[in-house]
# Entry
Amino acid sequence: MSLYNYSTKTFTINGRTYSPPNAPTAVICIDGCADEYLSTSMAHGCMPNCLRLSAEGYRGMVRGALPSFTNVNNCAVVTGLPPSETGIGGNFIIDHETGEEVMTNSSKYLRKPTILAEASKSGRKVAMVTAKDKLRELLTKDMHGIAFSSEKAAEATLEVNGIENVEKLIGAAPPIYSGEASLYVLRAGVDLIRRGISDFCYLTLTDFMQHKYAPSAPESLEFYSGIDRYIGLLMDLGVVIGITADHGMNAKCLADGSPNVIFLESELRKEFGDGIQVICPITDPYVVHHGALGSAVTVYLQDILLRDSIADWLIRHDGITEVYNREIAAIKLQLPSDRIGDLFVLSGRDVVLGRSPEYHDLTMLEDTLRSHGGRYEEMVPMLLSRKLNCNYSAKASADPRNFDIFDFVCNGGN
Amino acid sequence: MSLYNYSTKTFTINGRTYSPPNAPTAVICIDGCADEYLSTSMAHGCMPNCLRLSAEGYRGMVRGALPSFTNVNNCAVVTGLPPSETGIGGNFIIDHETGEEVMTNSSKYLRKPTILAEASKSGRKVAMVTAKDKLRELLTKDMHGIAFSSEKAAEATLEVNGIENVEKLIGAAPPIYSGEASLYVLRAGVDLIRRGISDFCYLTLTDFMQHKYAPSAPESLEFYSGIDRYIGLLMDLGVVIGITADHGMNAKCLADGSPNVIFLESELRKEFGDGIQVICPITDPYVVHHGALGSAVTVYLQDILLRDSIADWLIRHDGITEVYNREIAAIKLQLPSDRIGDLFVLSGRDVVLGRSPEYHDLTMLEDTLRSHGGRYEEMVPMLLSRKLNCNYSAKASADPRNFDIFDFVCNGGN
# Structure
C-alpha cells in the first residue's frame, strides 16, 4: 500500500492512451547503454538490484530509432513516436526553411506534443531531469512541472525550471564531463519521489562514460554500480520503473587505436566534384565525447542527377553498410524527409563517417573513439520492474521500440 | 598443472595461424542462442557457471554471418571464413551446376578445408559432436577423429564416426526434437575430454528449444540450467572454453499469434508475372522448428531486366528491411555469388519471408513461430573462459565475428 494516492486518470496523446500506475513512476534513459554494459556489470556482481529487477519484472531488447543518436531517441521516447513524426532525425540538421545548419536543441523543432506534458495535465506531478542541459527545453515542450539538468542545476529557477535551490535539495552538481553528471540525475529522481515532489519522472543520463570506457573497464563497472544503487533506492520506494537507452555504443578504432573514419565529404568531392555537402547529425555541444564522428551521415547534392551513381559508389565502399535515397530513408528509417539530405548513409560496427579531416578536431578526443549512430547501435535493452501482462508480453516479443517505454510502463503491468 | 600434455603445435589454415592451448579445448555453438537467452537465464539464477565464466574470462557480442542460418554459420565457424569463401550461403540453395534445389548437408559443397581437420593433423585429438546429423559429414571434411550426432549416436561406427558404442559410453541418445538432444552433445564433450579420448572439441547444438520457447519460458530456463551444468563440468576439468551461436532467434508473429509471413513468390508473381522463383535458404530436414520460414530469401528472375524495378518494389514493402542485387549481396553480405539468386532479401525482427502459402506446411509448427535468418538475428554472444590478451581485447571491441571463435580460443588467451 502506498502512502499517497497517485492520479491514475488515463490520458491520450499521439494516438496512444496511457493508464499511469497508482504508484510513483520513473522512466530512465541510460544514454549510450549498449546491452553489454548491463551484462558485463551484472557478471561482475555490480548490478544486484537490476539483476533482481530483471527476474521479478522483465529484461529484453528493444529497437531504437535510427540514426541512433541522443536527440532523435529522446524525442521519440517522450512522444512515443518515430523521428518521421517528431521531426527530430538528428542532433544537427539543415533547417530546410532557412537553409542553415542548426542543432535541434529547441522544442521549436519538435513537431509533436509530449507524453510528459500530457501526464502533467492529467494530474501527475511530472519531473524531467537530464544530465545535458541541451535536452531540457526540447523534451518538456508545454510541460507544467519540474525540468532541470545536472549541468545547470545551480541556475534552476522556479520560473524556468519549476524548482529552485536544487543544490540545497539534492547536493552540489557535478561537472558535465563525468559519470557523476548521470548519477546526479538519478539521485534527483530518488529525492523528488521520496519527498513527494514528483510522482512521474523521466530521468535521462549522459553517455560520457560509455564514450570513454568499454563495458569491462573498472571505471565503467564502478559507474554501473552507482546506477544500480539508485535503482535499488527507487525499488525500495515502490517506484514502477522502466529502463531503456537512446542508443548503444561501439569502439570505432583501427588496430593501432586511432579512429576508424571515412571522411566522406572529402572522398565524395574528390570523386564527384564540389557540389556535395555531408552533414554529421551526431554533432552537438559536447565535443570531447566523439569529435562529431558517428555511424550515420546525410549527404546533400547540388546535382540531383548524380544521386544514383553516388549511391552505387557509396554502397561499394568498404565500411559503409547501408545507403538510402531521401524517399526510401523516410520510409525504411522512419525519418522526416524535409530534414535529411538526398542520401542517408550508415556505417559498420567499428566505422564512423566524417566530413573532412579539417572539420573534426580529433585532438579533443580524450580516449580511443567509441561512438554510435548506425544499425549496430540500434538495439538497446529494456528493463521493467513489473511482470508484463499477456498483451504486452506478446508485444515485447514482437518488434517493440525504445519509444514504447512509457506505454510498457503505464499499460504493460499485471 | 594438467595430467596430460596436449599438442601445442601451431597450425595454419585458411590464412590464419592457430596456437592451441596446452589444455583440453572446447568450442561450443549454442544453436539459436540470442543473447537474451543468456541474460534472462542468468537473471533467474539458472547459469551460475556461465556468470562466473563471464567475469573470469570474457562476455561480449560478435557478428555472425548472413543469412543468419545454421549451415551458413557452422561452416563459417569451422573454417574461420565468411560464406563468400565457404560457399555455404544457405541450408538450401540452387546448385548452379545442376540447376537443382539442394540441401547443403554435404561437404562436397564446402569450398574450404576446416580448422578441425587441420587441428587433427597437427596432433590434437579432435571430436566434433552435433545434435543434428545433417551437420556431421559437412563439418568434418577430411578430419581424422571422432564425429557423431545425438540424432544418430546409436548408429556410430569406428569406420564412419571414429567411435562406436556411443550409447554405452555416454548414455542412451535422446530424440532429436528435444532439449536433451543438445544436452547430450555437451555430455559427450565432457565424457570424451574426461576420458582423454578427445582434447579439442567442437560441440554444436540444435535450436529446437529456442524455436519453441522464449527466453523467460520455464522450459527455456530449465534447458539453459542444463547447459550451464555441463559448462560447469568443463570448467572443473580445466577446459579452455569458447561459446558462441550460429544465429539469434526472434518471435515472428502477429498479435493473434499466427505467423507474420510475407509469401514473396506469390506476391511477386501477382505483380511481375510467373518468371520469378523464391528460394528459402532456411529449408532443412527438421520441419517442426520453423516450417521453412525465415527472415531471408533469395529471388531468381527469368527476366533480368525486371531486376531493378522488382528491387524497388521490394524495398518499399512493409516488413522488408534490405534488398540487394547479386553483386552487392556478394560484397555487403559476403555471399557466394554463384549460389544466390538475382536478388537477396532480408526482413524485419518480427517478419518472415515465404514462398507461397502452399509451399509451407504451417500445420507442422508446434507453437507460435520463432525464427531467424535476417539482420536482427545476426548479433550473437561470445563467451571465453580466459581473459583476453591485449591484441585480442582490441579485436573483441572492433567488429569480431562468430567465426573468429577458434582464433579467440587458441590465440586470445593471456
Observations:
- Chain B touches chain A at residues 35-36, 38-40, 42-45, 51, 54-55, 58-61, 63, 214-216, 250-251, 253, 255, 257, 260, 315-316, 321-322, 328, 331-332, 348-350, 375-376, 379, 394-395, 397-399 (CB under 8 Å).
